[in-house]
């Protein structure tokens, strides 16, 4: 589980569109559905086109173009039942889940799916989702401290018996979970992903998670985060894998791809984007060093609400494949892709882009032998 060593092949995940509005806050046509039947077909298409993971989103309250949402853990379990190989990563919020309750759900989901369940711990950016439910809204770094404890506790419950834990946020007293998930030497617990960009997120990733998810970044941004993440992981005798968000626009010509991006931004739902900006601007800017998600995001960046355009996976299949492999050489282990028209574009990616990625990876391996 390393960001120090470059794997032979980069992995691919896609955003599950279990939230209405697609992956861009724009009035452009998006031939993407948020209903289960659409998502079931999409999951089956994805696992047959080279995607190993899918990440289900978590929203609890109608907001910013995402008026309707299916809950992430139950939706992930349903998709696991409709697929054979795809691994489902359910996004969850500490503060709205108790780690032991989620551990129980996760163990059952893992057994039912043959070891394909994972979680992404999201520390929270949407204040209203907490305050409207009567839950306390913690300061930024405190949210990440809570997430760190959450990650510690759930790993212990999944792998140990008679768990005792005394933290600032969680108290566990002689707790044993049975049955445990389908833990193996290769995967000692269901994989723990943790998202963020801030210094607090990097510290959590290095200390507690199996995977670190970053918002969209260019090469310099990825390198800067990886350097920090690796330093923290080494200090705790750990290795962590790195996942990068990117909105993928692969077309037969570069002009077509750039025109699509231009249309997405031109047709942006400005009130929704500005509402989202207002809600998230504190997430990075409230940190002491001003590092964090959305701390330096422009209006255009926020049209794809996880900065997916910044990764610049936009162009011909050859251009997109070359850029993916360039990220892999920096230490990116997984690309988390968003698309405008998910079903048809994941098929296009599997047919036109992924084979080129594998050819480039093979050429790199052959050159080093």
TrEMBL record:
<feature type="region of interest" description="Disordered">
    <location>
        <begin position="181"/>
        <end position="201"/>
    </location>
</feature>
<keyword id="KW-0285">Flavoprotein</keyword>
<keyword id="KW-0560">Oxidoreductase</keyword>
<dbReference type="GO" id="GO:0004497">
    <property type="term" value="F:monooxygenase activity"/>
</dbReference>
<dbReference type="InterPro" id="IPR050172">
    <property type="entry name" value="SsuD_RutA_monooxygenase"/>
</dbReference>
<keyword id="KW-0503">Monooxygenase</keyword>
<dbReference type="InterPro" id="IPR036661">
    <property type="entry name" value="Luciferase-like_sf"/>
</dbReference>
<dbReference type="InterPro" id="IPR011251">
    <property type="entry name" value="Luciferase-like_dom"/>
</dbReference>
<protein>
    <submittedName>
        <fullName>Alkanesulfonate monooxygenase</fullName>
    </submittedName>
</protein>
<dbReference type="Pfam" id="PF00296">
    <property type="entry name" value="Bac_luciferase"/>
</dbReference>
<feature type="domain" description="Luciferase-like">
    <location>
        <begin position="12"/>
        <end position="333"/>
    </location>
</feature>
<dbReference type="InterPro" id="IPR024014">
    <property type="entry name" value="DMSO2_SphG"/>
</dbReference>
<keyword id="KW-0288">FMN</keyword>
